[in-house]
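debug: dumping io for the single-chain case to check the tokenizer round-trip. Nothing else runs in this session.
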Amino acid sequence: MSRLNEKKDYECRPYTCKDEEQVRALVKNVFGDFLGGEFWNWKYKSNPGFDPDLVMVAERDGALVGCNHWLLKDFVLSPSLETKAVLGADIAVDPACRSQGVGKTLLHSLRSSESVKIKKPSFVFMFADPSLAKRFHNPKGGYFLAPDRTAFYLKILHWGKLEDNVRRLNDQIAAGKFKDRLSGVKLNVLFKISNSPRLLFSMTENGIAVGEKDEGDVRKPDVTITADLNTLQKVGARKKRYLNMLKALLTGKLKIRGKPKSLIALYRNMWILQEIFSQKIF
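debug: decoded output
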């Protein structure tokens, strides 16, 4: 196959099932005879995350000169928070057609394709050879290099600060400070904050427990509070707290659901949440 001219004389389009043999041959040609020629089947077609809509090919005169695969993944950030992501996998370009922008065009074409917009992944990630990343993925593909160390997922709610607040409150409860106010308290309050783990506060006269609530958690909330981070910050602010809460309720930005008896119990014990959220946790 002749080298591509300086002028772009190929087109990028979505993969179809008719392209399978050409794609298989191209990947085998570029990446060698890995696994006895079964590389493509093993890594892509038989992969649970394979989606033909997330494959882009570059075509010239009826022949494929490049392909780019993305694999759809369920990315678990915490026991109660999961999102969709795509793994940017191999970009294969015919050796005779390199340095002509084929790979770059494939990357950007797939990223802006309708298929990707429909899947709505939260982010794209990939693992690349460092030398290749410097020459291709970083400057041309639009990726950025992750730090060469363990990466920590930071929750929107700062768990360390939240747990410290609960621990301090429990120390005061153990010392008998709130004995009269906690008498007979038994209430589970679930916070559903957008893009954050679901937090369940269990309030009893013996103390407060907080933790993530996943799908398998059998504990049932008595009250569910739904809000976004910005609304929660405004409601938690000391100034105009109740006015902000009323505005949020009226506009639907804050939703509080539960049986009347539970809502009354929440109102009576709102001071517990105020004690926990009074310190900065974001």
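debug: round-trip ok. The chain has two domains: 11-137, 159-277.
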